[in-house]
Amino acid sequence: MSELFDAVDALLASRAALPPPAERKRLRAAHGLTIDEVAGALKVRRATVSGWESGKTEPRPPERDAYARLLDKLAELYPAAPAPVAEGGPAPDASVPAAPAPAVGTAAAPDVPVPAGPAFDAGGVREPVKPPVPAEDLAAAPAVVPRSASAGRPSMSRRPGARETSEAGTPAGGTDPRFENGPLAVVDVEDGQVLAYCTGGLVLDVPAKSLPALVGWTLAEAKLGQPKLSGPGRPADPLLVLTEAACERYGLPTGLTAQERDAGRIPEGHKAVKQLTRADWKLTKRGFGPWARIYRPAKGSDRQCVQLCIPSWNALDARFWGDAARLPPAELARVLGTYASRVMTPRGSTAVTGLELMTALHPPTHAVRDEETGALRQAGTKTPGSLGTEPVDCAPPEAPDGHPLLKDLPRFHVRGPAEKLFEEAYDWARPMTDAECTLRYLVGIDVNMAFAAGANGLTVGLGEPAHVRAPAFDAKLPGSWLVDLSHVDLSRVKVGKEWVDLDGSLLPSPFTPKGDRPTGPAWYATPTVAYAAELGYDVTPTEAYVRYDNGRYLDGWYQRLRDAYLATMADLGVTTDLSPEDFLAAMDGYKGRDPELGIVITAIKATVKGGLGKLRERPRGEGWRPGERWRALERPTWRPDIRAAVISRTRINLHRKIVRHAAFTGRYPVAVLSDCVVYAAEGPSPLDVVPYRDGKPLPGGFKLGINPGLVKHEGTQTVLWGEEVRERFSAPDLNLARSIKDGTVTDADNGE
C-alpha cells in the first residue's frame, strides 16, 4: 500500500501548482533570498532557478514539489498586494493590513518599520518602480495652475506667467495614489503666495500660515512621498525643500551663524522649534538643522514624519550637489526629483542617503504572520540578508584609532601593519623612465563608478567576527587575515593560468595603498589575500577574524545606483552601446548638454563614495575623547569591515587590469590615484593607451565605456608638463593623476 501512496504522491508532485514566473521572483525577493540560496536549498544550478523565474523552463519532480512548498510558505508571509480600484485607492484586504495614507492625528515614530505588502526587484528586495520616463516624453509637460492639494484634480490651464519645465525622472501622478504628486516639493513664496513646486512641473498652492501648519498640510493634503524600495520596508517620508523666501515666511533664519553651523542646528529655544513643540511635533536628536526631521510619536501603524531640506543652510553641499542650491524652485525640484526617483528621496547628505539606501533595500526586520489570528504583525525578526537592529563590534585590527577596543593601548602608541587593517584606495606614483620621457603625452583614464563596481557581487559579513588561530585561507569567507605577503614578486606572476614576466619595479604593490611592497605580516581583507593566491603565490595566515554569517549585502545597492547612473547618462546622450570612438565623442562636454542632469550625476557618484565612507564614520564633535564610544557606533550600519572589503576589492580590480595591460602591451602606469591611472603614450587619446584588436579590447584589461568598471578619459597633459611640475615642486614622485584632468597644481603633493 505504501508503494501506491508513494506513486500517488509522485503524481501529485508532478502537477504541483505553481504561481506565475513573476510571482515566484517576487516571493523570493520579498523574503530577501538570493537565487543562489534557493538553488542551494533545492540542490539545483543557479541557472535552473533563474529559468523558473523567467518562465523559460518549468521545474520537474522531485524539485517541483519542494519548490511549490517554498513558494506556498512565502505566499503566506507575503501575500500579493491588492489591485487598486478607481478613485478609491487600494482595494481592502482583510488578511493584509493596508498601509494607509498619512493623516493628521495618527502617527508612528519615524524609525519604526511599518508592516507592508511585498514587492520585488531583480537584484534584491525592492518595490516595483515605474521605469524612468524618457526626457522627450516629458518635454511637453508644462507647469500647471497652482492648486490646493485638497481641491481635486488639477486644471490643465496654465498659471499666468508660469514657467514651463521639462522633467527627467518619474513625474507626478505615479501609480500609488498616496504619492501622486511625487516624492518632494520645493516651497517658495511668489507675490505673497506660498507655492510648492513638485516633480513633473506641478505647482501646488500652500495654505499653511505657520511651520506646524505646513507640516500638517504636507501629511494631510500634499500627497507627497515615495513607495518603499523593498518588501519589508516602508515608504519614504515626504521631503520639503525650503527656499530663503520660504524660510522667512515660516520664521526661520535664511542662514546659520558660525556657532549654529558648528552645532549643525539652530538653538532649541528658537521660536520655530517652540512652535513645533507646542503643536506636539518632535525633532530627532540632531535637532533643527539643514536636514531636519519632524515627527509625532507612534500611535498605531501610521507613520507621520516630514523631512525638511534647507539649501541656504548648506544642506546641498556644493561639493556633491554643484550649483543646485542656487537653482530656481522648478529646476531644483527637477534635480532632486530625478535623484529621488532613481536613487531614493534624500534623507540628508549624499553620504547619509547612500547609507540609508542600504537599509531601505535590506530593512532590519520584517512582519510575520500571527499563527493564531493570521494577521501580520511587526516583530523583531531579523530580515534575511540584513544587518539586523543591533550594532556589532568590529574586530580589534578593524577598529580605527580611538575606538574603545583600543583603550588599553599606550597613549602615543602607533599601530603598525601587523596590528591594524589598512585597506585604502591607491595613491602611488613613480619617476618616468627614459623611454617614457621620449613620448609626448600623459593620458589619464578613470574607472566609472569604481567603488560601486567593487561592491557588486562582493560577499561581506552580516554578523559579528569569530577569532581563528592558524586558519586555512578561504577566499569565499569574508574577514580580516594576518598574513605575510612580502614574498609575492610582481616580476613573475600568473595572468590567468599562464606565468608571465614583468618589470615589477614599474608596478605598484597591490597590497598597500602607497604601492610599497610589504615587509612582513600585515592585516588584509579577504579580496587582497585572494589576489595574492591568484597571482600564483601561497598564502598562510597566522590569525584571522572571519564572519560565518555573510551574504551579498550590497548587490541591490549597487544595482540601484548603477541603474540610476546609466539612465541619467543615457539622458545626457551617453549610452552603453556606443563604439569606443563614439563613446569618447559623447563624453566630451556631456554635462553641458543638460547641467541639471549633470548635477544628478555628481550626486549619484557622491552617494556611492559617501555611503561607503559612512560605514566607518568617525566622531563628529560630540565632546568625544579617545577610548569613548561615539554616536555612529550605535548603528548596525557602522561596519568598517564592509568598507575595507569594498575598498580592497576595488583596488585589486584595478591592479588586475594594470597587470594584464602590462602583460599584453608592455606599458606600465606612471601614477595611480584611487580610480585614475596615468600612462605615457604616443598620442593624446585613451585609444593610444587602451588597445583594441578587431574592435575588441584585450581580455581582462581596460575597456572604454560607460558601464561601472569600464573606463573613460580623465584628461591628457604633455610629458613636458609632467616633468616641469615635478621639477618645480622638487618631487619626482608627485602624483600626476591628481592634476591630469586640468593640469592645475597648486601645491606640493604631501600625500594627505
Structural notes for this entry:
Helix 17 runs antiparallel to helix 19 (595-614). Strand 1 (84-85) and strand 2 form a beta hairpin. This protein starts with a helix and ends in a 24-residue tail after the last helix. With 752 residues, the chain is of the alpha+beta class. The protein contains 21 helices and 26 strands. The strands form eight sheets. A seven-stranded mixed β-sheet has the order 5-4-3-6-9-8-7. The chain has a five-stranded antiparallel β-sheet with strand order 12-22-23-13-26. A four-stranded antiparallel β-sheet has the order 15-20-16-19.
Summarize the structure.
β3 (184-190) and β4 (193-198) form a beta hairpin. α3 packs across α4 (46-54) and α16 packs parallel to α20 (640-665).
Write the SSE topology.
Blueprint: H1 2-14, H2 21-30, H3 35-42, H4 46-54, H5 63-77, E1 84-85, E2 89-90, H6 135-138, E3 184-190, E4 193-198, E5 203-205, H7 211-220, E6 239-242, H8 244-249, H9 258-263, H10 271-278, E7 282-283, E8 293-295, E9 305-309, H11 318-321, H12 329-342, H13 350-361, E10 365-369, E11 376-382, E12 427-429, H14 434-437, E13 441-447, H15 450-455, E14 460-461, E15 466-469, E16 479-484, E17 492-495, E18 498-501, E19 521-525, H16 526-534, E20 543-546, E21 550-551, H17 555-571, H18 580-587, H19 595-614, H20 640-665, E22 671-673, E23 676-681, E24 692-693, E25 696-697, E26 711-718, H21 719-728
Parallel strand pairs: 3-6, 6-9
Antiparallel strand pairs: 1-2, 3-4, 4-5, 7-8, 8-9, 10-11, 12-22, 13-23, 13-26, 14-21, 15-20, 16-19, 16-20, 17-18, 22-23, 24-25
Helix pairs in contact: 3-4, 12-19, 13-19, 16-20, 17-19
